[in-house]
Design brief:
Length: 220
């Protein structure tokens, strides 16, 4: 069975809906959410957020100051039964009291970024990004289910390709299962936010089709 709900393609039975790589039956952990528009998109596509935990590094108060649509997105998640956690460090999340005893079928980190300390092409800045990604992967490996997947969506042009995400994952005992082309237009109302500085609420350019990809990792 296939059809459309609010412009979103879904397939499967009435009790299971799918948007791109994600199913309503999956237990999903979202890490490093900005204005929570990605998690809200999934929840609306599924008609439920009961199997979802969406997290942010920022506190609720900081989020409300930074993002114009975050309150509406958080409300949507709450109404659909989702769990929202703030002040969750992606590099230490397996020790969080609300996560440490859980397992997830999909763990998602879209456009991880360690901040704007140096130019993106600077070797020191690249190392900061790599430390963040490797720390996330190390923690995600502890929380992903045996047959689950860890997804990182990322730009693949220079200098972002210098992060060498696949090599970082291999060092953490993870294998690249697939690299899938990413387009934010596949996720209605998702807006990728800068997240830092005076332009936190602005979307950053993700380039033409093929400029970004979702890396899917599994345990060895």
């Amino acid at each position: 069975m296939a059809g459309f709900v609010d412009g979103i393609t879904y397939c499967g039975s009435v009790s299971e809906k799918t948007i791109m790589h994600y199913k309503s039956s999956h237990t999903i952990l979202l890490v490093g959410e900005g204005d929570f528009s990605f998690s809200a998109c999934l929840a609306k596509a599924f008609g439920s957020a009961a199997n979802m935990v969406a997290t942010s590094l920022d506190s609720n108060e900081v989020l409300l100051r930074k993002y114009s649509r975050v309150a509406a997105n958080l409300e949507a998640l709450g109404l659909l039964g989702g769990t929202v956690l703030h002040e969750v460090d992606a590099t230490a999340m397996s020790r969080h009291c609300s996560l440490c005893y859980k397992e997830f079928d999909r763990i998602i980190f879209n456009f991880p970024h360690a901040g704007f300390s140096f130019p993106e092409s600077d070797a020191v800045q690249i190392k900061l990004h790599q430390d963040l990604v490797r720390g996330f992967l190390r923690e995600a490996r502890k929380l992903v289910s045996d047959k689950g997947e860890i997804h990182i969506t990322h730009k693949i042009s220079h200098p972002y390709c210098e992060w060498e995400i696949e090599k970082l994952a291999k060092k953490e005992g993870l294998l690249l299962k697939e690299t899938a082309e990413f387009s934010r237009w596949d996720y209605p109302n998702y807006e990728n936010k800068r997240g830092g500085g005076g332009n936190s609420d602005h979307a950053f350019p993700v380039g033409a089709v093929g400029a970004c990809a979702t890396f899917k990792f599994v345990r060895y």
